[in-house]
Amino acid sequence: MSIELEHVHKSYGSQPVVRDVNLHIESGELFVLLGASGSGKSTLLRLIAGLLLPDSGRVVLNKRDVTLLPPQVRGTGFVFQNYSLFGHMTIEKNIDFGLSIRRVSRNIRKQRTKELLDLIGLPGYESRLPAQLSGGQQQRVALARALAYEPNVLLLDEPFGALDVKIRVQLRQSLREIQQRLGVTTILVTHDQEEAFDIADRIGVIEQGQLVEVGTPSDLYQRPQHHFTATFLGTTANLLAAQRNDQSVHLGDVNLPIPPHTEHLTGSAVHLMCRPEEVKLFASRSAADGQVIGSGKVESVNFTGAMLRTVINLQAPVQTPLQALISPANARGLGLAVGQELWIGLGEYHLLPVSENS
Amino acid sequence: MRETKPVSGWAWVLIAFVVGYALVLLIIPFGTLLYGALGEGIAPVIDTFANPFVQHALLVTFVLSGIATLINAVFGLITAWVLVRHRFRGRQFFDALVDIPFVFATPIAGYATIILFGRGGWFSPTIIPIVFAYPAIALVKIFVSLPFVTREVQPVLSTLSSEGEEAAYTLGASRWTTFRRILFPQIWTALQYGIVLTFARMVGEFGAVSVVGGSLEGYTETATTFIFRAIKDRDNAGGYSVSLLLCIIAVVILVIMTALRDRVRSKEA
User: B171 and A145: CB-CB below 8 Å?
Assistant: First the structure.
């Protein structure tokens, strides 16, 4: 049950909200559309469900062109942020709504409802009303309702957005389990990157209606192709102006080995990207390992829980502040303090093209 | 809301005033009616309701009110739908326009009906008479109670998010099925409330009905215009009896409305 989008475009008035989106999602995949609010991710989901029609482009579900078909015949299960259960119906009636529309016999409906209630961990809740359930329970029921008639694809629009943090984490784990057990192709829309990293097979980063980049969570985090992805994911990314040639990366007069997957950047000005947790600090040059790039003065140290967020001003080869995440043990070893002079080494790093400005 | 026991003297004065006010305005007239109707025994009351003209007037009142209520229920519902779900130029103006029957003196509505549908009017009928006949009575009843259904359904409809409907669509429900199974059950109580209000208002209408109907005995005379004629003719037993009947119907309607309102509230809770 694959999902394919070809040059999908949608505007509200003169305001484009989805721009030329191309996407192929494999059968059984859990794909997460990640973007800030107003980036067009929910609109894209609605276009797939048929709740909106695109201005141009094609939507293909399971090799069937559904671009102009109404939502009723697309066979998608949709879960909304605010549950949107039918308040005047019992949980059982809510869950078997899709089946009753399809005139499935009462016995089978009862059986199926029971299975689904077991699956979502709410056995025996048939005769309750939605208002008697907590938010997390209601969202489980909404998921069961969407799954009841065995849709081709499952679409979830910020499904955990209205829930407490703890419930959110629990629920996304059980969503992942259920999704894998049923093997249903799923798209989940969220602005929460932790959520995306936690459950996604692949993530699509969307910004101002454009699908910027698609990849596995670790690829997008460690080896992004675009500045936007680099800075949008994670808390921050250190970017240093550099030059790549055949043999090495030149950072000022320091030469660094070439990271993998950057052949296409040979001979051009690049940005060297390094995540804060890959920036390492050392008391002396001789103690340093990794790729030592120079020394700097510690400007600030902030406690953030598990790690210390440190800003150090690199003096040479380029003058720039660097963010580093230092473990408490490491900090104690260094006697980490503001104003201290330390050597800087890089663990993993990656290269981005400079010309790309979004 | 928290209930507090009245402690101060002023609180008692306030309560006594409100209760007294209600007694004078509501209960005493009702008692007077009861006394007036039954003061000379049950016989005049029985005579009144045995009078074929009275029976006819009641029949005209309830049948025409019933038909007009049905019409207003349907169009009131459609109006509420259009006002909540559609954005069009002049919507706010139209929204305000719906309340006109509330602020118009009803004889004006009757007069306008005569001008439009009477002899030489713009819509003067060629086949069946409208003015001084049943159609005009139904028309003015429709006019005077036009806002009720719309105004009851409108706020409920506007609180329903469109996501419920969208959920139903993605589950395979057609627009009609979605309306029948998702939307309608949620506005049904408000609609019933509006219908009951509409019917009550129509039964009680006097001014416009008396203008367009002409109160022809045994034909266009309604319950309210009969009461008016009975007063003029010093037929006290007749006037009191029919008034009492209308009052009892009103009380029954009030009870139904209270029950419905409780249901609306318990649903909201």
Answer: yes
Q: Show contacts of B87-96: CB within 8 Å, 24+ apart.
A: none
pLDDT-derived band at A358, boundaries 50, 70, 90? very low
Find, among A74, A71, A76, A94, the residue nearest to A145 by Cα: A94
What are the tokens at B247?
């009052």
> Would you put residue A118 in left (φ > 0), alpha (ψ -120 to 50) or beta?
alpha
Q: How far is B155 from chain A (nearest CA, A)?
A: 17
The whole-number average pLDDT for the span B201-220 is 88
Find, in chain B, the residue whose alpha carbon is nearest to that of A153.
B170
Query: End-to-end distance of chain A based on CA atoms, in angstroms?
Result: 33
This complex has an ipTM of 0.85
By a Cβ cutoff of 8 Å, what residues of chain B touch chain A?
161, 163-164, 166-174, 177, 181-182, 185-186
What burial letters (b/e) apply to B115-143, b meaning 16+ CB within 10 Å?
eebbeeeeeeeeeeebbbbbbbbbbbbbb
* CA distance to partner chain A, nearest, from residue B157 (Å): 14
Q: Residue A186: enclosing H or E segment and its boundaries?
A: strand A185-190
Is residue A211 within 8 A of residue A21, CB to CB? The reply is yes
Residue A30 near residue A213 (C-beta atoms within 8 A): no
* Core vs surface per residue A198-223: b (16+ CB within 10 A) or e: ebbbbbbbbbbbbbbbbbebebbbbb
Length of chain B: 269
Chain A nearest-CA distance from B145, in A, is 29
Across the interface, whether the CB atoms of A51 and B166 are under 8 A apart is answered: yes
Is residue A17 over pLDDT 90?
yes
Instruction: Answer yes or no: do B167 and A101 touch at CB < 8 A.
Output: no
Structure tokens given for A2: 């694959």
**Are residues B166 and A71, on separate chains, in Cβ contact within 8 Å?**
yes
Distance CA(A181)–CA(A198), nearest Å, equals 17
Among residues B178, B151, B161, the alpha carbon closest in space to that of B83 is found at B151
DSSP H stretches of helix in chain A: 41-49, 91-95, 97-101, 106-119, 135-147, 165-182, 193-199, 217-222, 227-232, 328-334
**A86: nearest CB among B170, B172, B182:** B182
Single pTM value for the model: 0.81
Confirm if A8 and A165 have CB atoms less than 8 A apart.
no
